[in-house]
Amino acid sequence: MLQFAIAHDPERDRWVLLQRLHHLVGDHSTLDVLLSELYVFLAGEGHTLGLLPPFRNLVAQVRLGVSAEEHERFFREMLGEVSEPTLPFGLSDVHQDGGDIDELRRMLPQELNDRLPSSGRCCLDVCKEVKVPIDR
């Protein structure tokens, strides 16, 4: 659900990182925490980060959980004043029947396509093409 590929960019003499994550583990807040901790490690200060709680604590929290009534109370408190749908610009049927959706497909250049692993996973050579800098 979370994957990184790292490669050296000799042209600019830097390291690049490609991050792939599933939307279930990649909300905005989690990404902010992940990146801030990554920068701490890159600065050579990883030892200053706190210890991670054992995974069993998360499992216990999820299994014990809270009741449906508690969830409902929480969201009623947070969203109780919302009385109508929150639609961007008032648009409620943006795709309609899907008839106006255009689709475009392009083939990769054969040289790049040949470098992709058959399993579809990212590899370092392909990562060089992406050139995602890890420096701010």
Number of strands: 2
Mean pLDDT: 78
Instruction: Indicate the radius of gyration in whole angstroms.
Output: 22 Å
**Helix percentage:** 25-40%
Task: Give an overview in words.
With 136 residues, the chain is α+β, with helices and mostly antiparallel strands. It has a domain at 1-65 and 120-136. It has five helices and two strands. It has helices at 28-42, 55-64, 68-79, 110-115, 124-130, and strands at 2-9, 14-21. Strands 1-2 form a two-stranded antiparallel ribbon. Strand 1 (2-9) and strand 2 (14-21) form a beta hairpin. It is flat, with a radius of gyration of 22 Å. The relative contact order is 0.18.
Keywords:
flat; 136 residues; disordered C terminus; two-stranded antiparallel ribbon; 37% helix; alpha+beta
Short description:
This protein has a domain at 1-65 and 120-136. It is 37% helix and 12% strand. It has helices at residues 28-42, 55-64, 68-79, 110-115, 124-130; strands at residues 2-9, 14-21.
Secondary-structure blueprint:
Elements: E1 2-9, E2 14-21, H1 28-42, H2 55-64, H3 68-79, H4 110-115, H5 124-130
Antiparallel strand pairs: 1-2
